[in-house]
Amino acid sequence: MADLYRENKDGALRVGSDGEAGKTRESQRFERVSVEPLRDRSLGAGVAYKTEANKVSEDLGAQGESRNERNARSFKRTSPSHTTKSKGTIIVLGSGPIRIGQGIEFDYASVQCVRALKKMGYEVAIINNNPETVSTDFDTADRLYFEPLTPDDVMNVIRTENPLGVVAAFGGQTAINLTKYLDSQGIRILGTSADSIDLAEDRERFEELCDKLGIKRPKGVTVFTEAEALEAAARITYPVLLRPSYVLGGQNMIIANTPADVKEYMAIILRQKIENPVLIDKYMEGIELEVDGICDGEDVLLPGIMQHIERTGIHSGDSIAVYPSWSISDALKEKIVKQSTDLALALGTKGLVNIQYLIYAAPGSQPDLYIIEANPRSSRTVPYLSKVTGIPMVELATRAMMGEKVRDMGFGTGLYRTPNYFAVKVPVFSFEKLMDVDTALGPEMKSTGEVLGIAPTREEALFKGMIAAGVKMIHPKKRNNEGADAPCAPNAAEAPFSATPSAGATPATPPETQSFMRTPESPDGVLFSVKKMDLPELPELARRFYDLGFTLYGTSGNASTIERSGLPVTHVAKVHENHNDNIITLLDSGRIAYVISTSAKGRDPDSESVKFRRHAVERDIECLTALDTATALAECLASGLTEDDISLVDITKI
After folding, report:
1. Into how many domains does the chain fold?
2. Which of 198, 152, 148, 193 is nearest to 174 (CA)?
């Protein structure tokens, strides 16, 4: 009798054949067996973890085997057997090891694809080598190949399985990067073809397609050398966005403001001996939007339009996303639907497509729509959008891959109906566990998770999302001198500096003897240190926090800007300006509730701005690195909402 997983009376799962002492599950969960080399001996032996859930029942019923035993049949050297009812085998590529930018969202998509294919009558083999995922559970697919997602290893499995085709669209960039190779080997890619995927990734081909469809996009070029990058950046004009092609999560992506930034970036990238070009785009600051669609080659269903709280320049995975969009006109919505539909069809999409847009208003012009990028694959927003719309997006996309029509799936085509509630996706970060990582957000993704807030209003949904993400909602005590709205004038015993300069006065240099050592009962300060280009927006943001009762602190340029708007503010020295009393000692004093820092995003962990933000994290002080995020926080604080009076939403009934 073949090796089987068997359960003892005590419930321990054992591995072994008849008459053989078994091994407990704790000591060895899987038996590893060699698979004959499939191309030549130089490839080495692979490892296949195979389950036989669809084995005909007569083989098992007579032996009285349990469901667990049927689902966990051990691994054989023989070729896979297929049930008489099976339509054939399909291989699904997983996402491999999880990293920032490629997380469990793609494991979710892979598992949902497997379930949809099995429901349609296919046997499914999945290739993935991450034991921390659901896709590698023994009962997810009919057969699991715990192999690296490399060309040789994947081809080994393909030659063993002889599948009808391979699904790569749900495994993130790791799986997508294999499509060109598999296509060159004559392997059928189910869904969007390898050429269509390349069409979306190849800069020149994609620009030609956008021009043909009349879709605007930021000016951009591809380069391979530092000299080409400097020339292109000067021609496009700074600031520019630099990134490698064929990456996920904004890996190695930056916004360059000077030639020095370009030189530094290209030196780092060229050391990695990249094969694909570096992309340089004009950086355009505006409202960022995101759309996921399901296409069958003829029709397109768009479950919804998501609008980001933060403007462009922060990776979509690190931005707060709101569904549905709340501030764009009906005319722009119609344009988004038309351009998304046209692009999905022109790309030859069969399955899922993710498109990112920005709304940008050039000086003296009306706001217009520009495309950032399009990816004919699953995205990290698919689980979120599926949950809040009730549309099983992966299942529908899988059915479209296999030839079904979107119009026949029961959800219509075009833009899905707008709900009467808001759903907000808020990123979660783990900076306290990542040493020397700058907490400033930018085009390279840094979040390690996300949470969801759903409510009848955008304000409440945002509040729910932010508290679920761990953002502290701190409400300072009312000022006690002239009422809640009066300027706060600390007494001599509490003042970290002598009298705060009056509005419009010349900023005073903090004397050497001033000290921040007193620790208040609760923090009530907001410390501002934003970059020069953000200063015009600073007074309005500072006013929001001042009206909430916070005491304002600022580095020299920030404090002067706030003063000119008529608000009282305490000047704080940077470390190089005063080694005894400065922004670091202020953080140590316990006075600061929030830090708002948008200063230069440095990749040098020894730079003062990076150390400042790191110190805030290590002191468990909320550090916000985008003005839009800070504004959203101020709105939540001003709403008066608390955890005790928020509404409960049954997500199964929305």
Report:
1. 4
2. 148
Cα–Cα distance for residue pair 639/623, rounded to 1 Å = 21
Task: For the chain, count helices (H), then strands (E).
Answer: 19, 27
Residue 13 has pLDDT above 60, yes or no: no
Phi, psi (rounded to 5 degrees) for 189? -95, 115
Q: Name the residue range of residue 414's domain.
A: 287-467
Cα–Cα distances (Å) from 36 to 78, 259, 291, 641, in that order, read 10, 54, 45, 63
Q: How many CB atoms lie within 10 A of CB 310?
A: 22
Are 30 and 36 within 8 A, CB to CB?
A: no
- If asked whether residues 384 and 407 sit together in one domain, one would say yes
**CA 12 to CA 26: how far, in whole Å?**
9
Whether pLDDT at 504 is above 60: no
Give yes or no for residue 242 having a pLDDT over 70. Answer: yes
DSSP string, 551-615: EEEEEHHHHHHHHHTT---EEE--TTT-SSSSHHHHHHTT-EEEEEE-----S-TTSHHHHHHHH
Residues 174-184 as b/e (b if ≥16 CB within 10 A, e otherwise) read bbbbbbbebbe
| Domain presence at residue 20 | no
Query: Which residues, other chains included, contact 288 with Cβ-Cβ below 8 Å and sequence gap of 6+?
Result: 307, 308, 310, 311, 312, 316, 319, 356, 357, 358, 372
The identity of residue 98, as a single letter, is I
DSSP 3-state assignment of 121? Answer: coil
In this structure, is residue 401 part of a structural domain? yes
Measured CA to CA, the distance from residue 503 to residue 260 in angstroms comes to 38
Domain containing residue 82: CATH number: 3.40.50.20
373 inside domain: yes
Question: What is the rounded CA–CA span in Å between residue 348 and residue 117?
Answer: 21
| DSSP codes joined into one string, 511-531 | PTT-------SS--EEEEE--
> Model-level pTM?
0.80
Q: Strand, helix or coil at 638? A: helix
